[in-house]
Amino acid sequence: MSLYENLLLNLENGVLIITINRADKLNALNIETIREIKAAIQQVYDDSAVKGAIFTGAGEKAFVAGADISEISELSDVNARSFAERGQEVFSMIERCTKPVIAAVNGFALGGGCELAMACHMRVASEGARFGQPEVNLGLIPGYGGTQRLTQLIGKGKAMELMMTADMIGANEAKALGLVNHVVPAVELMPKCMEIMNKIVSKAPLAIGLVIDCVNAVYDKDENGYQTEANSFARCCSSQDFIEGTNAFLEKRKPVFKGA
Ligand code: COA
């Protein structure tokens, strides 16, 4: 039996494509799906054959239309905190993954779906994608890191507006706000993500992981990001890939990186 009931996993040229597969519920994230996302991202951490990951949603309509409202409706104050913390932990794993993770947003990215996309290192959207944090419609607030990451990505005023009005925005507006990196026609969504991914995985993997660490350090109150950067820079300089990268430049050839 497959480890995954609600995900489809497909390894393509070293890139793990993780598809949330509950199209009849617009790929809403129930607790089981969160558990499976944790297992899938753990595989990205652990499996040396996996160089990066792309999250997307099954079907034509949705990336992820939020946490599963039928489960949320059963929450009490006793279990709601651990519900949020569990989701936050999984999404932090995505954010802190030292291999690149891209969200291919193919439709509605609402609530927990927008939060999942924001936990990825970057977002590419199809032209018809729609973004929003509509939790206040349900008497709720975002619980999987949305209040923090949306503010980091688009700034305080716009984040306040989106979360307080529950308005949905289209892909082009999301791009103008800095929520999305690229907007492409639906048929070009996965090719565009693969193009970006292939570019990234051709670079020195240690350096890529350290870029991710250093950028994340900006948002960690307990970390001195400049110190993290200097330490990481020094670490790169003691790597074989640094020797290979600089030698290849001087010898006018393409580098062959080994990730060490
Ligand atoms: N949780 C559970 N089920 C969901 C869901 C969610 N977040 N979002 C959609 N679904 C289900 C619907 O209940 C429906 O199931 P059914 O066919 O068994 O009745 C199915 O997915 C299709 O959704 P539907 O609402 O019929 O599609 P639509 O095109 O009319 O509307 C949306 C699309 C995205 C606007 C609408 O589904 C919606 O508002 N979803 C909730 C978004 C939300 O509030 N997310 C934050 C949750 S915290």
Written account of the structure:
This protein is α/β, with parallel strands linked by helices and 260 residues long. It folds into two domains: 7-201, 2-enoyl-CoA Hydratase, Chain A, domain 1 (Alpha-Beta Complex), CATH 3.90.226.10; 205-250. The chain is 48% helix and 16% strand. The protein contains eleven helices and ten strands. The strands form two sheets. A six-stranded mixed sheet has the order 1-2-3-5-7-10, sandwiched between helices. Strands 4-6-8-9 form a four-stranded mixed sheet. Helix 4 packs across helix 5 and helix 5 crosses helix 6 (156-165). The chain is globular. The protein binds coenzyme A.
Task: State the main characteristics.
2-enoyl-CoA Hydratase, Chain A, domain 1; 10 strands; binds coenzyme A; 260 residues; 11 helices; six-stranded mixed beta sheet; alpha/beta
